[in-house]
Queue: 4 jobs
Job 1
Amino acid sequence: MAGNESIEIYLEDIHHLFEPKHLNPLKNSVIQGSGMDVLFFRSRTHFRYFPKSIILHLPLGEYDKEHIIKSVKKYCDSKIESIKMHQVAFKNDRRINIITGLLFLITCLGISKFMIHKIHPESLQYFLKEGLVIVGWISIWRPTEILLFDWWPVKKHIRTYERIKEMPITIEIQK
């Protein structure tokens, strides 16, 4: 994608811009997200070369184009705010996970260092000592993953909605 292309969204009904189509097995219809969901995911697949504009193809009818454009921008603002609120809650969970993981790691290392030497025979002592060290480090695996990697998709989601909000929107009426 050269970066100057548009994302085109074809809607059968203006209400499908924000609401997903309903599944109707009798008509062999498939589950599809709203037009905004489709726009978001198409934008994400071309994230390196972000499209320059949006073209909404609507069925024949009378539409307040400015209201539709403002609604898309308001939807993006709402999604950004929602993501940021979830991010705050996620930060609190992240702290609890890291503290719990570290305490468990310290406990495992402490037991393996100071209490295992009282167990006989030595082969069982070695097995328990190494096992506690491994279990302790495994307990810190997920908190470390959360700390290092789980925030990237959140930032990308926010950036995608910010870019969508800034893109010019053209509305074309299908004949």
Job 2
Amino acid sequence: MLIELKIKRQGGTKVDIDGQNYHFKPANDNPDAPHVAQVTNEEHIARFLAITEGYRIAPDSTAQAAAAASGTAPTGSASTNTGTGTSQPEAKGLVLKRGDEEVNLKDMSRSKLLAFCAENDIEVTTKMKAMNVGDLRAEIFRLATTSEG
């Protein structure tokens, strides 16, 4: 997942998590480009996204620009429909409509749930960060449906 650091520094910013080094640098040759890094470890994604004032999921346009610059395919973001196209009875209550898209929280990992919160302006509290993934799904669903009404 492409993560954006909201703070831009000349030369970028290097961050180490558990011995894994991430270099947040401009997504392309434009000096004003967002500073991004590719993060694949789900625990690291969750840690970055938990710092909402510093990090966010790179918007699709940024991800596409970074992919074009590096010659790689962009990775999906949490706004992508992660459903399988089949309805599971136990998951039926965790499907949210976002425009024309259905988002099934049941299919999302912890990092994708946190990313979904960031993209949909759902504040992630300390209590939510400590929840198991099932309780986190239920809480996000509650908050998303409460804010819609």
Job 3
Amino acid sequence: MNEETSPHGICFGFEGLSLGEARRPHTATALDETEVLQISLQGLEALQVSMSDEWVQRLSRRSTEQMVEQALRTMPLFHGLLQKTFREMSALFEASECGSAGMVVFAEGDPGNKLFILLSGCVNITKGGAKLSTLVADPALPRPFFGESALLDGLPRNASVTTAGPSRLLVLQSKHFTRFSLLVPDFVSRLARIKKLREKHTEILVAAENDRELAKTAGANNPLRGGSPLSKVERRNSIQMAKRAESLLGGNP
């Protein structure tokens, strides 16, 4: 589903503690050489650890907070924040699972009461039935985010977001936004910088596409003439960079 790293380790598999003999709902696979500490139910009993629902919930919450903290650290939007700030921020988010394509995250006209970070999967952004863009969560890239505009403005959603496949989201609800704003007091200016970067990459994409069309027209008018190999490589790299930036930066609805 996703890849997580942490200098302090990640706790997982806790859901099995409350499932008893039931089968695991997910599969965990090591992608590289990995050291894992494992403790059984018998081991917990030997340590006299209470297996109450409250204990399992606390363990689950702590694991989620670790995962959230690692995701937030990858995002340019939060670069430069203190470690303590990341820890406190992680407690404000909750995880949400969307198991299939076509699930509505929010619809145009809905209240703008949540900010979303895409942990895994992809979502489509549409307005009036027309597709505006697709955000994709790439494990090698910062997580894209969306939904901040309506949350800041207090206005209804100006677009709809639906899943394009199984996806995991982090959700910041409006009731936690005051605390979030205290932790990140320059959040609006950070968004402005991200917006400028997104606009710059959009300009690169448009310019590269226009250059490609001009080269195609010139080649059609003169079959012996075409763009140099270097210009083709530059155009391709510009387009790829712009599309990559558009996906990872996210933002708006």
Job 4
Amino acid sequence: MIPDDKKQSAITLSIERKIISCNNKFSRLQEKPLQVLLYLLKHNTRYVKSDELIENLWQGNSYTGQRGVINAIAKLRRAFAELTLNNIVENKPQVGYRLTATIFLSDINTINSIPKQNHISRVAIFGVILLIFSLIFIVFKSEDKQIKTTLHDALGSKTHIQTSENVLYFI
């Protein structure tokens, strides 16, 4: 909960939606910058070295991790700049990164785990729709009682399937 005296200029993070906001402005974060932000929030009492971010967020892969940290921090700074907030991510050479502002979490009570994406891909949705239309086509073209029974069972016991004059009815 954001205290009343902080609401006007509070920086808020919605982890679920991957959005930071402040003063009615919003900026969307990609996955890695979000992970870096969460890690910095979790360790907000100290500077976090690049090597620590690489170890924990890039599974120790220093080849992709070094460039990844630089890119993620740049994207994070760009997202804050879209909110007209500068110097939120501080960097001390040879020491590490830290956040210079309080960030309120709007949709969870803890930052102990980075959330997994909870979305169904468009390809999966398209596949399900294609499967349904294929089944309907098979029933439409067939008078076979077994196919109608199978489709009836799949759609539920309250659905009645009837074909008449090249029209398929679900009742």
